[in-house]
């Protein structure tokens, strides 16, 4: 079984914020696959999709970003999902808006959701798909920036990034992640 996790914060107030780009990709895949996120367990909302490549779970942790690892590790333990079978999607301040960066391992890089995952999984070797949200303007604090909605000018780039991210996740169901990285990095 494969697991695709989108990181974000639950609730209307956070719905379309930069920090919730991971949730947006999961919502997009859920619609594309006709797999509504109706199951609530493991401190998250999830769906199971029966794909030609096998069973795939889509997960949106509802623990708030800083505790994402609680939800992911509980679900992985229950379903006995291997680390190499997950993809975690999240925002990245160090990439230009809409640019993708895929990696198989690494540090948290200051991202609290990834910090929580590394802590709860006891490992930093898991597949990641980062979506650029750029840096805040001078004088704006990072928390204020990531909890802000995208500007009208950014919407086309973000919409394209969501679709490319979904395509990368789908490709990752049938190809080794290193091949997915080669195909989608930097797009």
Automatic annotation (TrEMBL):
PROSITE patterns: PEPT_TRNA_HYDROL_1, PEPT_TRNA_HYDROL_2. It catalyses: an N-acyl-L-alpha-aminoacyl-tRNA + H2O = an N-acyl-L-amino acid + a tRNA + H(+). The active site is at 19 (proton acceptor). One of its GO terms (molecular function) is peptidyl-tRNA hydrolase activity. One of its GO terms (cellular component) is cytoplasm. It is found in: Cytoplasm. GO terms for biological process: protein quality control for misfolded or incompletely synthesized proteins; rescue of stalled ribosome. Pfam families: Pept_tRNA_hydro. Coiled coil: none annotated. The record marks 9 as: Discriminates between blocked and unblocked aminoacyl-tRNA. SUPFAM superfamilies: Peptidyl-tRNA hydrolase-like. It comes from the Bacteria. Transmembrane segments: none annotated. Its EC number is 3.1.1.29. Hydrolyzes ribosome-free peptidyl-tRNAs (with 1 or more amino acids incorporated), which drop off the ribosome during protein synthesis, or as a result of ribosome stalling. Catalyzes the release of premature peptidyl moieties from peptidyl-tRNA molecules trapped in stalled 50S ribosomal subunits, and thus maintains levels of free tRNAs and 50S ribosomes. PANTHER family: PEPTIDYL-TRNA HYDROLASE (PTHR17224). Monomer. This is Peptidyl-tRNA hydrolase. It comes from Planococcus versutus. The lineage of its organism: Bacteria, Bacillati, Bacillota, Bacilli, Bacillales. The gene is pth.
């Amino acid at each position: 079984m494969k697991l695709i996790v989108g990181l974000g914060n639950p609730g209307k107030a956070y719905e379309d914020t930069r920090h919730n780009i991971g949730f947006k990709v999961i919502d997009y895949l859920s619609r594309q696959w006709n797999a509504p996120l109706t199951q609530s367990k493991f401190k998250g909302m999830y769906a199971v999709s029966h794909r030609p490549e096998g069973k795939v779970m889509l997960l949106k942790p509802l623990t708030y970003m800083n505790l994402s690892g609680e939800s992911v590790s509980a679900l992985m333990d229950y379903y006995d999902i291997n680390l190499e079978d997950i993809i975690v999607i999240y925002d990245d301040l160090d990439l230009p808006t809409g640019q993708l960066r895929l990696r198989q391992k690494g540090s948290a890089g200051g991202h609290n959701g990834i910090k929580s995952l590394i802590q709860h999984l006891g490992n930093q070797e898991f597949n990641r798909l980062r979506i650029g949200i750029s840096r805040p303007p001078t004088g704006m604090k990072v928390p204020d920036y990531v909890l802000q909605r995208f500007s009208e000018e950014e919407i086309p780039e973000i919409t394209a990034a969501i679709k490319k991210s979904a395509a990368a996740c789908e490709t990752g169901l049938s190809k080794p992640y290193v091949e997915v990285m080669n195909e989608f990095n930097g797009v």
